[in-house]
Structures are given as structure tokens and as C-alpha cells.
């Protein structure tokens, strides 16, 4: 059995239903739950898009759980999650991937797997896209375009909580230009948000 299949077998031992149960055990804020689902859908999109369709559930679960500790323990983000997920019996590869999205912010666990790099690069960016959509009179993701996203990206006061530094570092990790990351993430976002 090759590594990928083995990883998939272990990872899918955790169902989406069970992961959702874990998430809602520690999160009740609607904004956090919606963000978790947005990142989940983004991860699923990129798994398919980048040729990892057979690992789609695995990528999605990492997205769903990535901020599991943030609502209750914001000052221990990505550190508390490691103990918590271990306690819940969640697979080490999922645990590691979750912690790696805090690289150079709150952990020193570097994203290595392509899936981890996608999580790192799109977590903050999808937040920015959501804020840009709210600026449109239509409130429709279908109106998203690279030009307006770049304009808002440069305006540091706009959606100030979305770290531009993390987005740039994420693009760099992927070996993509910032424009490419934005264009592809806009396409992801439009695939599930109307
Ligand atoms: Fe997040």
C-alpha cells in the first residue's frame, strides 16, 4: 500500500459527521462555524482541482477542524488544538495539518504537504473574499474579480483581521504568484458561494 492510500485510509476513519460533532462541541459562534465550512469547501475544491480527488474528504475535514480551538482558547491557537485533537483520538496527520496553519504565527510546524500549504494560503484569503463580497450591492460572490480583490488587499484597513502577510507567505509556499492564488481562490469561492 502506498503512502497516499495509507494516509487516506487512516484519515477517513474520522467521518465528516464526527468532525462536525467535535467542532460544535467547542464552537457555537455562527461566524466561526460558517468560516469552518467555507474553509472546508475551499479545501475540497482544491483537492479535486489539484488531482487529489480521492483525498477530498481528508482535505475537507482538515479545513473543517482547522480553527477548533480558536473560540475557546484564542491565545493558545494551534497549540491547544494539538492536545485537544489527540484527546479526541483524531489522526496525527490531521492534527499536524491543523497546527501547521499557525506556522510563524503561533507554531513552528511548517506546512509541508500540498494540502497544508493550501490551508495556509486560503484560510485568511477566503475571509478577505467574504468581506469583499459584502461590499458589492449584489452581495454575490459571482461579482468577485481579481482587480477589486487586489484593491482591497492593498487597503490594510479593510478587513484588517485578514493577514496579508500570511496570504503572501502562503502563495510563496505554493510557488504561486499572489495573482494566481487569488484567481484560483476566487474560482473556489464562486464554486460554492452564490
Ligand atoms: Fe481559519
Keywords for this entry:
single chain, 194 residues, mainly alpha, globular, binds fe (ii) ion
In short:
With 194 residues, this protein is mostly helical. The protein is built from 10 helices and no strands. The structure holds fe (ii) ion.
Structural notes for this entry:
This protein is mainly alpha-helical. The protein has one domain. It is 64% helix and 0% strand. It has ten helices and no strands. The protein is globular, with a radius of gyration of 16 Å. It starts with a helix and ends with a helix. The structure holds fe (ii) ion.
Looking at how many chains there are and whether they match, the oligomeric state comes to: single chain
Q: Give the strand content.
A: under 5%
Q: How large is the radius of gyration? A: 16 Å
What gross morphology would you assign?
A: globular
Mean pLDDT: 94
Order of helices and strands: HHHHHHHHHH
The portion of residues assigned to helices is: 55-70%
Amino acid at each position: 500500500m502506498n503512502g497516499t492510500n495509507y494516509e487516506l485510509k487512516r484519515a477517513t476513519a474520522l467521518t465528516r459527521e464526527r468532525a462536525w460533532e467535535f467542532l460544535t462541541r467547542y464552537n457555537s459562534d455562527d461566524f466561526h462555524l460558517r468560516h469552518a465550512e467555507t474553509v472546508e469547501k475551499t479545501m475540497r475544491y482544491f483537492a479535486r482541482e489539484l488531482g487529489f480527488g480521492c483525498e477530498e474528504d481528508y482535505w475537507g475535514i482538515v479545513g473543517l477542524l482547522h480553527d477548533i480551538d480558536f473560540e475557546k482558547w484564542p491565545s493558545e491557537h494551534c497549540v491547544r488544538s494539538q492536545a485537544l485533537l489527540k484527546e479526541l483520538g483524531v489522526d496525527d496527520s490531521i492534527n499536524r495539518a491543523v497546527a501547521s496553519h499557525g506556522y510563524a504565527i503561533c507554531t513552528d510546524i511548517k506546512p509541508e504537504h500540498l494540502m497544508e500549504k493550501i490551508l495556509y494560503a486560503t484560510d485568511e484569503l477566503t475571509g478577505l473574499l467574504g468581506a469583499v463580497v459584502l461590499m458589492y450591492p449584489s452581495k454575490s460572490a459571482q461579482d468577485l474579480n481579481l482587480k477589486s480583490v487586489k484593491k482591497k488587499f492593498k487597503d490594510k484597513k479593510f478587513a484588517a483581521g485578514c493577514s496579508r502577510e500570511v496570504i503572501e507567505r502562503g502563495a510563496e509556499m505554493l510557488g504561486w504568484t499572489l495573482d494566481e492564488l487569488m484567481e484560483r481562490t476566487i474560482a473556489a469561492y464562486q464554486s460554492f458561494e452564490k
